[in-house]
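User: Show me an example of a complex going from sequences to structure tokens.

Assistant: Sure. Here are the input components:
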Amino acid sequence: MTHPSYLTLDRYSLEPHSQPAEVATHVGSCPRCQAHVARLAAVVTPSTLVLRENERAMAPPTPTPRPLTFALSAAAALLLGAVLVVALAERPNTAETTSPKSARPPGTPPNSVLPGVELWVKTPPGEVSLWHGQTLHAGDAIRVQVQPAKYNHVVVVELRPPHPPRVLYEAAADGSKSALLSPAWAIDDQPTGDLEVILSVNALRDEQLASLPCQESAAVWCKRFSLTPVDGRSWSPP
Amino acid sequence: MSGAVEQAWRFFPLVREKCRRVLGDSEEANDVAQETFIRLWKSGLALTDVRAVTAWLYCSATRLSIDRLRNRAMRQRPVETRQFAEDVEEATASRQVLHRLVEVAEPDELAAAVLDRLDGLTHAEVAEVLGVSDRTVRRLLTRFDARAASLRADA
């Protein structure tokens, strides 16, 4: 099997839609490449450091190195954070003045992080990986990780036509950090459907929720996942 | 933590993994990844341009890792042969060849070999990362292979 280069996989991990569809197809069926992509998301970062203790059961997999290695890694991560903060403070110009303004999406405030959503899949007996379109089975569990960026609310909606959209999760979001939403949804044998994650500046009104699927605007960002597996299984709240 | 710093953080895992592939040692990889990161920060590169940032990181991390290998060779530190679960036999063999050639090969040859043999980049991707032509990449790899063949003949 010919694997994509690590550079391609890394770019795919950062911006899945920037790569050809063949890359996603390959990653979805290749354990080695899937493991590499998952490992990139699993390394300790400021985002994963803020995960609550009770979320660890479904947290992205983290390496289990020797205790000394872990201590050194943690120390290194803290040191890097400190260095970067110091570097930020010492720079004569901040990133927003040195970075070309054209690189910023229109309307995005300086230094903002772009919004994003990832799905994690936990497969019995406990293997956790990023969802790349692979087939889901009964007993699997999915969990949503969001990077709200400038948005303040997050809503997770089940779209299962002809039934009306059903809100599975709704909460305020802290735009400064990535968060793993606390509920996990189990895969069952119900008819298939989609999952839509909506980030918004203000809480969505009932009429907006009733008119889903979501229409993006300056105040609303959304991402839809077609979880329809080939074997006809789908997902539902536990 | 500012948005810019957090935006930079998302590149850290790939840099660390990249350094680990070259160095074969997680702790050294962390050191080099941090050094690469500080340089990225100082570079003023627009962090939103993922393609440019990843190419820049691959180039810088490769060169810094090679420097580290050279320093290691000068200290006559035993070559790490620790194998990670994801490494294939071929990658481990390539790394061992790199470690043996690090003192005699030219930096550009080593960089091209690291990107081609360990990171599995296409010639076009190596050319993009190093900022040279495809033809130059082929020439660098040919020279590297000649040195490796010579090394094997001497052994």
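The lines above are the inputs; the final block is the predicted structure for all two components together. Chain B touches chain A at residues 1-14, 16-18, 21, 26-27, 30-31, 34, 37-38, 41-42, 44-51, 54-55, 58, 86, 119-122, 125, 129 (CB under 8 Å).
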